[in-house]
Amino acid sequence: MSTLAIATAKEVFDLLRDDLRAIERELGTDAVSNVGAITEIADYLRAGGGKRIRPSLLLLAARSQGYNGIGMIRLGTVVEMVHTATLVHDDIIDSADKRRGRPSANTTWGNEKCVLAGDWLYMQAFRVALEEHNFKVLDLLISLTQQMVEGELLQIEKLGLPITEREYYDLIYRKTACLFHVSMRLGSVLAGATEALETELGEYGRNLGLAFQIVDDVLDLTASEEVLGKPVASDLREGKATLAVIHSLEHGSSAEREAISQVLDDRSFARVKHSQILDILTRNGSVEYAMQAAFRFAEVARKSLSGLPYSDFKRALMWVPDFVVARDK
């Protein structure tokens, strides 16, 4: 593919700068409650930053089809609030004490307040979405939240257990890729896309989200805590088998499989060190295997844009898969 067809990071930022600033302002307004703790927690989470990739996808989907109304700011805010709510709940479920290099909200305000703040953010997201007066928007958001909750429950049931690749892909679709998928579809709904084009752009989001989570899982195993902003190998310590681990469980020696199973079972590196697990993954080519899967999903995502008319916004969408697979945190 010609590099001339793909935007640069600066071009993408310049395209979306005003829209993303509008979403930030909207977040600051919509995440305010007359209960002080909710506002404090929401402000703290927003100040922690983040890539804002989900609202960016919604903006690009809408603008690439000629839409430029207030609805994309409103729904961009909605998907970011939904994402933030999931992070709050994830940190509580995982007993995480760091998020993006800072103490997680639950370490400051406690689990009880944070789970309720997360619930409030979910409901507030739906309240804002209601302003669109569009049943399809609500249907997409309801289905999204159901799948994300189901994914979290399924993952809890699988903790400490080896899972298949098929189970892994189902989990990461529900927990991560589903929101990418819905963000693209919401942007298409705003633009009045045909059902066929909405489906194609939804597939872009789905495959991009799968690539994103696979890379996230690889970085959890291989990056440093300084870069990640949280402890490394958190997934293994929580008993979660991700793609590289699944590959070594299926292709490693009996001793290697036993070592990995011990970590999953113990939910700690008390008997087997993190460095030993990395050695096992390296010997079996498991990290490379996972990254190749991410590259494949990223390329499938890009091919899903074939029905979209050429524009700077399409060029930006073509760039995003490269960003997703090349990032280091």
Summarize the structure.
By secondary structure, the protein is mostly helical. Helices cover 74% and strands 1% of the residues.
Strand order, largest beta sheet: 1-2
- Give the SSE order as H and E letters: HHHHEEHHHHHHHHHHH
Stretches with pLDDT under 50, minimum 5 residues: none
CATH topology: Farnesyl Diphosphate Synthase
Count of the domains: 1
The average pLDDT value, as a whole number, equals 94
Question: What would you note in describing this structure?
Answer:
The chain is mainly alpha-helical. The chain has one domain: Farnesyl Diphosphate Synthase. Helices cover 74% and strands 1% of the residues. It has a two-stranded antiparallel sheet with strand order 1-2. Helix 2 crosses helix 5 and helix 4 packs antiparallel against helix 5. The protein is globular. The two termini are 26 Å apart.
